[in-house]
Design brief:
Length: about 700
């Protein structure tokens, strides 16, 4: 039953006219808020309806949605809409009829559906989707359009979910990375409108979008300023640069819309992972010279086409036909061929071309890897990195080197580079983790290895723990010990000060006091007893052994979960049973107390002490500068921990700060990308002061 809105016809007409003005080209459906995006949806399905290949599209509306006929000035509440084929009847443009509650809407139509926070349910071919309101359904320019408006953050999350499909929690950071990338593209004023008065469509040449998926509930806290927002399914081992999109066939201008793209080729690889992150995806395709000529030069009468070369540096394909030679951008060539032969015929731009003659005609065979244009983020590679425990920020920075970051005012973290876990030192249960796979993230232990050396000394060489001293000059000893991080040197130093101040020279000098094979064997036994998954290799010589002991050999890797186990061993919480309790009982209590005292001194006078010193991006230290909060100062007498600074990242090209420590019954592990151990300790104290101290 129709229910007319209150007010006279003239008032309704003016209201409808005002709404119509907002829908003119250049005006977003939801206003001028940059956090709102307008979307042209269901274009493929509408085309299939017009061609008679799809029975129809049903649109169920909320009962209280205002449905306004903008051409007739009439508003009703709720109801059902359906787009069906016009068949042979020229009722509407685009051979599609709009039915309102079963009756044709007329030869031309423009229907606006509004309900704050509402959704409409769209059904076709056994599939049901939910789309946000407001929405406009209109016949225009010989076709039919459905346009909706959505919050940019929610659209980005739903679009990423549509691109990726279902992903488990271990791959969540890949989904988050793609969401952040799409969001950056959506809100970038340079992106422009791709579809007249709409920002994007729902097809893959923009981003795939299938309505609300349930993924768009979390706000975007950080997003990259990359100078290019491209992504693809699988690169095949190495991404492409912006030259892939190139210009027009004459080499001038920009035919494919790469905008201000600054994407550069990067290896789709990571330390500790064999082969490409997006392994597999091999393909091949063959094309005859006459087919190629018809596709690129038009008509069957064109002279046969010859591929002269595929220039992988310039990312251009040179093709000749008769006396004509044309240079195509790699993606332009791929799309031209695929429009005729199918969208996955030349599956990617990562290929080589071979030529052979069959029955008197040239045949070109393309053999390659990957899927898509190959520029920017590799979705399959991002999934692999997420499974390895990398954060969304690390994933984006891998594929977009030099990315800068912008954050919302209410960002959940003061820096996008910070990840951490809070856990119980009593039983190891997690109280907070930055993302689900963080515990599986593997890093070089760096100076955390000095803690393992300390435990070894307590168990097997108490003489060194109690009496050994070394003079640290800070400088590298020719043919021997590596330099200390403290170039001025620590002077004559014993164990307690060496651990609290993380003296490289002291721990490296132990290579002359300890048998390296026995050490590796004992450490591996300790790992097995504690249930840790890492393994200690046997150093090949004294130089390698010295580097291992002081934490400057970054070849060994340890997971955050293993670091949590190590912290549980050092914590003062009583464990009634289990591996940690059994190992702890084997360590002499006076030696364990000496190690704990050194780790407490790390916070008061060692590498984790003092005011924050700038290092790396300003985002990593900006909020740490200035007076130390009173709550933070309280922790300096009771908190313990150890810092480390390592070189890591997917291809081992950036610094990371690590902190492992605890306060009473709570442990913490911090990983600070593009930071150092000192700043990681500063963040650990701030986190503990804010999240743990108030409960004690």
């Amino acid at each position: 039953m129709r229910s007319r809105s209150a007010g006279g016809g003239a008032l309704r007409y003016l209201a409808a006219a005002a709404v119509l003005l907002c829908l003119l080209p250049g005006a977003p459906l939801g206003g001028t808020d940059p956090a709102v995006v307008t979307l042209s949806i269901l274009s493929k399905q509408i085309r299939l309806v017009g061609e008679g290949k799809l029975d129809g599209i049903g649109i169920a509306l909320p009962h209280d949605a205002a449905v306004t006929d903008l051409l007739r000035g009439e508003t009703v509440l709720g109801g059902e809409l359906r787009l069906v084929s016009a068949g042979g009847e020229p009722l509407t443009a685009g051979r599609v009829v709009l039915l309102r509650n079963g009756s044709p809407a007329g030869e031309g139509f423009s229907i606006l559906v509004q309900r704050p926070g509402g959704e409409m349910e769209v059904s076709f071919a056994g599939e049901t989707r939910r789309y946000p309101l407001p929405a406009q359904i209109r016949s225009r320019g010989g076709g039919t359009e459905v346009i909706v408006t959505e919050e940019a953050a929610r659209y980005a999350a739903d679009s990423a979910a549509a691109e990726y499909g279902a992903l488990g929690p271990h791959h969540g950071e890949a989904m988050k990375a793609l969401t952040m990338l799409i969001y950056a593209k959506v809100i970038d004023p340079k992106t422009g409108r791709a579809h007249g008065d709409c920002d994007f469509c729902d097809l893959s040449h923009c981003q795939v979008y299938r309505g609300r998926t349930g993924a768009g509930t979390n706000p975007i806290r950080w997003w990259p300023l990359t100078g290019g927002y491209f992504f693809h399914a699988r690169c095949g081992g190495k991404t492409m640069g912006c030259a892939t999109f190139g210009g027009d066939v004459s080499g001038e201008g920009n035919a494919l819309g790469d905008g201000d793209c600054t994407c550069v080729p990067v290896k789709c690889a990571a330390v500790g992972h064999k082969g490409p992150l997006c392994g597999g995806g091999e393909w091949s395709a063959s094309l005859g010279e006459d087919e190629l000529a018809a596709i690129l030069f038009g008509g069957s009468a064109s002279p046969p086409a010859m591929i002269r070369r595929y220039d992988r540096e310039r990312m251009r394909v040179e093709v000749s036909s008769g006396d004509r030679t044309v240079s195509y951008p790699a993606e332009g060539f791929r799309l031209a061929v695929n429009r005729v032969r199918g969208w996955s015929f030349i599956a990617s731009n990562n290929y080589s071309v071979t030529e052979e003659t069959r029955t008197g005609r040239r045949i070109y065979t393309f053999r390659g890897r990957g899927l898509g244009h190959g520029v920017g983020l590799c979705q399959e590679g991002a999934k692999t990195l997420a499974g390895m425990g990398y954060s969304a920020v690390e994933i984006l920075e891998h594929y977009f080197p030099g990315s800068q970051w912008r954050g919302a005012a209410a960002a959940e973290s003061p820096t996008p580079y910070l990840s951490y876990v809070l856990f119980s030192l009593e039983d190891g249960s997690v109280e907070f983790m930055s993302y689900p796979r963080f515990a599986g993230r593997r890093v070089p232990p760096g100076s955390l290895f000095k803690v393992l050396v300390s435990i070894y000394l307590a168990l097997h060489r108490p003489d060194l723990l109690e009496r050994y001293r070394h003079v640290c000059t800070g400088a590298e000893e020719e043919g021997g010990l590596p330099a200390c991080w403290y170039r001025r040197g620590h002077g004559e130093i014993a164990f307690r000060e060496a651990l609290s101040k993380s003296c490289n020279r002291y721990f490296a000098s132990l290579c002359r006091q300890i048998d390296r094979e026995e050490f590796a064997r004992r450490i591996n036994v300790l790992f097995l007893e504690l249930g840790m998954q890492c393994r200690c290799p046997v150093p090949a010589n004294d130089r390698d052994f010295a580097a291992m002991l002081c934490g400057t050999d970054f070849r060994m890797r340890i997971s955050v979960e293993d670091i949590m186990i190590l912290a549980g061993l050092l914590g003062t919480g009583g464990r009634s049973g289990g591996a940690i309790a059994r190992v702890r009982q084997t360590i002499p209590q006076r030696h364990l107390a000496l190690i704990r005292e050194a780790l407490m001194r790390n916070i008061t006078e060692g590498t984790g002490s003092g005011e924050a010193h700038p290092f790396g991006p300003e985002l990593n230290y900006r909020d740490l500068l200035g007076p130390v909060p009173a709550e933070d100062a309280v922790l300096r007498g009771v908190m313990w921990g150890k810092t480390a600074t390592v070189v890591d990242g997917p291809v081992g090209d950036r610094s990371y700060g690590i902190f492992m420590g605890g306060f009473r019954g709570t442990g913490i592990v911090v990983l600070l990308s593009r930071g150092n151990g000192h700043l990681a300790a500063q963040w650990a104290r701030r986190i503990m002061a804010a999240r743990v101290l108030p409960h004690h």
